[in-house]
Structure formats: C-alpha cells, structure tokens
C-alpha cells in the first residue's frame, strides 16, 4: 500500500501545473468493445506510442489492462497480436478506418 501511495504521489509531482484535477467515476454498467480484439490492440499501440496517458509514463501492459477494464474485454497476449498486426499488408487498417469515417463526417457536416 505504501508503494502504491508513493507512486501516486510521484505521478502528482510530474503533472503540469496548468492541469486541472478531474475525478472520473466509471458508470456501473461498462460499455462493451464490439470490434475485434486486434482492432483494440492496434489502437492500444497507437495511443501508447503517442504517449496519450500519464504523459507517456505508463507501461504497455498497464494501459492494456486499463482498456480491458474500460471496454469489458480480455485482450490476451497483446505482444502476439502486435506481431500479427505487423505481418499484415495494411498494418493500420483500423486506424485508417477511424480516420476515413471522421473525415467523411466532417465533410458531411460541412455541406449542411
């Protein structure tokens, strides 16, 4: 418990002063990830590589565990899934779909 407390305090010290302290409570009912596990692992690696959580100070496994909890899914061996993703012709097919859908929505909204 002391280690957890000290780690939390260290994270607080690393935060930028302009950040607001926001408390987030998870709803009692979790949302379920309905795309493939591979898609979530692709997103996981992209978020990890960009350093989107804790200013990039989070392990890949901790982030995977977090996403598993948030999206109520078990990802299994994310390293093995990553190797599979690397072997695909289009390595970022899910991220490409996300980008295409968002651009299409923006273009549609621009026409209104």
How would you describe this protein?
This protein is mainly alpha-helical. It has one domain. The chain has five helices and no strands. It has helices at residues 2-14, 37-50, 60-71, 78-86, 93-110. Helix 2 packs across helix 3 (60-71). The longest helix is centred in the last third of the chain and has 18 residues, at 93-110. The chain is globular. It starts with a helix and ends with a helix. The model has no long low-confidence stretch (mean pLDDT 87).
Throw out a few tags for this protein:
mainly alpha, 112 residues
Strand content: under 5%
**How far apart are the first and last residues' alpha carbons, in Å?**
55 Å
Q: List the quaternary state of the chains.
A: single chain
Count of helical regions: 5
Reported for the largest beta sheet, the result is: none
Q: What would the average pLDDT be, to the nearest integer?
A: 87
Report the helical percentage: 55-70%
Overall form:
globular
Count of the domains = 1
Please provide the count of β strands.
0
Weakly predicted, low-confidence segments: none
**Whole-angstrom Rg:** 17 Å
Order of helices and strands: HHHHH
Organism: Aquipluma nitroreducens
Protein name: Tetracycline resistance element mobilization regulatory protein rteC
InterPro entries: Tet_reg_excision_RteC
Pfam families: RteC
């Amino acid at each position: 418990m002391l280690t957890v407390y000290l780690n939390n305090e260290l994270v607080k010290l690393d935060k930028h002063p302009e950040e607001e302290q926001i408390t987030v409570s998870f709803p009692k009912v979790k949302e379920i990830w309905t795309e493939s596990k591979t898609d979530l692992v692709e997103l996981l690696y992209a978020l990890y590589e960009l350093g989107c959580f804790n200013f990039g100070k989070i392990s890949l496994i901790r982030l995977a565990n977090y996403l598993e909890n948030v999206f109520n899914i078990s990802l299994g061996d994310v390293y093995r899934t990553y190797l599979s993703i690397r072997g695909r012709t289009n390595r970022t097919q899910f991220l490409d779909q996300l980008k295409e859908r968002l651009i299409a929505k923006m273009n549609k909204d621009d026409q209104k």
